[in-house]
Amino acid sequence: MKKAIITGITGQDGSYLAEILLKKNYEVHGIKRRTSLINTKRIDHIYQEPDLTNRNFFLHYGELTDFGSILSIIQNVQPDEIYNLGAQSHVAVSFDEPEYTSDVNALGTLRILEAIKSLKLIDKVKFYQASSSELFGGSIEIPQNENTKFYPKSPYAISKLFAYWMTINYRESYGLFASNGILFNHESPRRGETFVTSKIIKGLLNFKKNNKILYLGNLSAKRDWGHAREYMNAAWNILQHDTPEDFCIGSEKQYSVKQFVELVAKKIGININWKGNGLEEIAIDSHNNTVVAVNERYLRPSEVDNLIADTSKAKKLLKWDYDFNIEDLIEEMIDYELQK
Ligand code: NAP
Ligand code: G4F
Fold first, then answer.
1. Residue 282 CA: distances (Å) to CA of 80, 203, 216, 257
2. 3-189+225-252+306-324: what fold?
3. Ligand 2 pocket: which of 16, 109, 196, 305 to mutate (most atoms <8 Å of CB)?
4. I need a labelling partner for 264 at 20 to 30 A (CA). Which of 91, 171, 193, 225 fits?
5. Which residues line ligand 2 (CB under 6 A)?
6. 100-152: per-residue pLDDT in tens?
7. 65 lines ligand 1 (CB under 6 A)
8. What is the distance in angstroms between the CA of the first residue and the CA of the last residue of the chain?
9. Per-domain boundaries in the chain
């Protein structure tokens, strides 16, 4: 039975990846940091009591900022695969907490790589790094692929750039099987509520129920949004490839934040029209109520305008075949909220 460690097990992606690996008969070890309130909602359905016989799912307290905790978990588990999904993953927050973001995302990755090397596990472990399309940031090349020049535009993206290159450096310097999945935005019912897709869905449902205005930031940013579960299958595939390599994973389709609002509004039966420009832009419903307005608070000091994936390499080498459309994704997210 293969053993895998997942950092970021309590996050959106960690929870999907854990399900996928358990189905493939892995022994899964998740690293979770201590929180004052229990935050295992996304993995409660796969949790196993400590006294269960034949357990194959384990949680370990650990912190990406704490080398000792990372080292001892890797030493005790002796994993075959490590998926580094843990991160301060919010781009806007990274402008407020650039040092912490770098400590977790950049140095956290280095700590894992160094632990693998110190424990002499270079020939045993395969390492997956959760890299991001944010690396492309201000790139003018459309669509973006593995050869597109990086132009990170936030402390988050810069921390991920360090981790990206450190992953390649351990591959080239020491022969570690280490790969970057450069994933474009991916969403699901488990998406954190401060990311724009989840915020829009919850916000428009709230408008429908309570007539409360949804405040957003930049409406014209364009993203390539896919489904997190499908992308975690790709993460697993990346580590099963014959050689360690870096892959772009996305849907190859693009929508603006404004278009996403329109799609959600249509699905839940709010008829909207846009009025005004820039900070004054609003969406109104057929009774002239304001549904969406812009609030400066949600604008970023620097923005990534235009992301869309070219996944030719993954299609060819990993047989990446993504056919989930955005409307189905939105429907799944809305249904989940309504069931709650
Ligand atoms: P997420 O929902 O924010 O989950 C992040 C996970 O990291 C959570 O489990 C979080 O724990 C954990 N974490 C945060 N700080 C930590 C620390 N100091 N030590 C240990 N664990 C820590 O993010 P996600 O959407 O699942 O994304 C997974 C990874 O993919 C991240 O690295 C993200 O940057 C990257 N990525 C995401 C996307 C996307 O569109 N979702 C695209 C490209 C790349 P808590 O639950 O305690 O907060
Ligand atoms: O949903 P977002 O916060 O995601 P963002 O910044 O693209 O980052 C996500 O995807 C990356 C992959 O490309 C990951 F690496 C990263 O970890 C994270 O998962 O914002 C999407 C767009 C941005 O342009 C933002 O400015 O939506 C715009 N936006 C407009 N109003 C807003 C809002 N974003 C948020 N979070 N909240 C708003 O009110």
1. 52, 14, 10, 13
2. Rossmann fold (3.40.50)
3. 196
4. 91
5. 89, 91-92, 132-134, 184-185, 194-196, 199, 216-218, 221, 223, 257, 298, 300, 303-304, 307
6. 999 999 999 999 999 999 999 999 999 999 999 999 999 999 999 999 999 99
7. yes
8. 36
9. 3-189+225-252+306-324
